[in-house]
Task: inverse folding
């Protein structure tokens, strides 16, 4: 029996290695196309996002990778909604640290009234986005790419509208005493890029 185990194990490992290499090439090629066609998409962000998902290693074609991208967007949107809820519940202004792991630092200062109003708006936007992206997943699986495109486009709108809300205070006559800084900038940017990647892949599939 032993004489048969090692050859089979070798074949299995070679198969895994080949699959991983194929997935890696698919990710690189897709991210290259995405970043070339959309200046808002950063190649390194695209590849690192896919590589962070174990599901990416199992992808064999563009359609499967597209589903992974939508799920990454869904996870980001859901996480951001929870983050906003946490900020509002805590009544404090907390920031993500800079090591790119989306953790929350200790309390800094009380929420500025304008920031709180913006967070409430963002909470509504991201709550709608969570529901929308769930439908987009179903549409994508059913190959209703036009419907999935519409849904995902609204998610991009949610991230930009949320971030723009914090900037409006600088142009308002009723400015706060302090300059308003969005605690969601990085998350909004991630949501925008992840959704843009999904939309780019959908456009590839439709062409």
Result:
């Amino acid at each position: 029996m032993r004489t048969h185990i090692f050859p089979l194990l070798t074949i299995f490992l070679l198969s895994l290695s080949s699959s991983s290499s194929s997935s890696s090439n698919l990710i690189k090629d897709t991210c290259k196309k995405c970043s070339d066609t959309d200046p808002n998409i950063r190649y390194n962000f695209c590849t690192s996002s896919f590589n962070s998902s174990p599901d990416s290693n199992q992808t064999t074609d563009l359609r499967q990778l597209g589903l992974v991208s939508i799920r990454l967007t869904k996870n980001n949107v859901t996480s951001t909604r929870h983050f906003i809820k946490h900020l509002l519940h805590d009544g404090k202004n907390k920031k993500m640290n800079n090591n790119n792991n989306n953790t929350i630092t200790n309390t800094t200062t009380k929420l500025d009234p304008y920031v709180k109003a913006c967070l409430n708006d963002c909470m509504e936007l991201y709550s709608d986005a969570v529901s929308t992206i769930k439908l987009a997943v179903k549409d994508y699986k059913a190959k209703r790419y036009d419907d999935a495109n519409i849904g995902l486009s609204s998610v991009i709108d949610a991230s930009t509208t949320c971030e723009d809300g914090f900037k409006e205070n600088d142009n308002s006559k009723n400015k706060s005493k302090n300059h308003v800084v969005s605690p969601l900038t990085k998350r909004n940017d991630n949501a925008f890029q992840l959704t843009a990647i999904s939309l780019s892949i959908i456009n590839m599939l439709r062409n």
Remarks:
- Residues 8-19, 93-100 have pLDDT under 50 and may be disordered.
- Residues 39-45+61-91+109-206 form a domain with the Butyryl-CoA Dehydrogenase, subunit A; domain 3 fold (CATH 1.20.140.40).
- The first strand starts at residue 92 and ends at 93.
